[in-house]
Design brief:
Helix content: 40-55%
Radius of gyration: 31 Å
Largest sheet: 4 strands, mixed
CATH class of the domain at 74-157: Alpha Beta
Strand order of the largest sheet: 1-4-2-3
Structural class: alpha+beta
Shape: elongated
Strand content: 5-15%
CATH superfamily of the domain at 74-157: Ribosomal protein L30/S12
Order of helices and strands: HHHEHEHEHE
CATH architecture of the domain at 74-157: 2-Layer Sandwich
Number of strands: 4
């Protein structure tokens, strides 16, 4: 009796015989049932993990959107970007960052040339970037950023 119950416990697999070797049927390529169940368990565990990550991210986004936005000046945002995300300094690097989508906010000095202002407005409209004016000229902006040179444009990285 014990041998019969063990024989039933073994997974059933089909073997190809000489007659069925030439035929391609779906029944000849079956996976044994225990292996299939194990594969399903690992897939479902992976699906649960990714679903849990997505819900956590969604909760963080909802919590961030519920906070009331403060009135933040350009100076405060520049200091915050210097400490955390990073700053892009200079007209060429800022425009490259805008085109590549690596910029969230742009800060310009009060003495920025009109041609650059027009280009900046064009690119900011297309990419949805906030442009803020710094209360001071390029020398003051350079000093505020802690650099020994003048800065016309600076941008906060995403």
């Amino acid at each position: 009796m014990a041998t019969k119950s063990m024989a039933k416990a073994k997974p059933k697999t089909t073997k190809k015989t000489a007659k069925t070797a030439g035929k391609s049927s779906s029944s000849s390529k079956r996976i044994s049932e225990p292996k299939k169940k194990a594969a399903d368990k690992t897939k479902s565990a992976a699906v649960r993990k990714t679903a849990a990550k997505k819900t956590k991210k969604a909760a963080k986004v909802r919590a961030a959107s519920m906070k009331k936005p403060k009135a933040v000046t350009a100076e405060e945002q520049i200091k915050d970007a210097q400490k955390g995300r990073g700053l892009l300094i200079g007209t060429r690097t800022v425009f490259k960052g805008i085109k590549n989508g690596k910029v969230s906010d742009v800060f310009c000095a009060s003495n920025l040339p009109e041609t650059t202002v027009m280009d900046l407005e064009y690119y900011s409209k297309n990419s949805g970037i906030n442009v803020k004016k710094f209360n001071g000229n390029s020398a003051k902006l350079g000093e505020f950023c802690g650099k020994p040179f003048k800065i016309l444009l600076t941008a906060a990285k995403k």
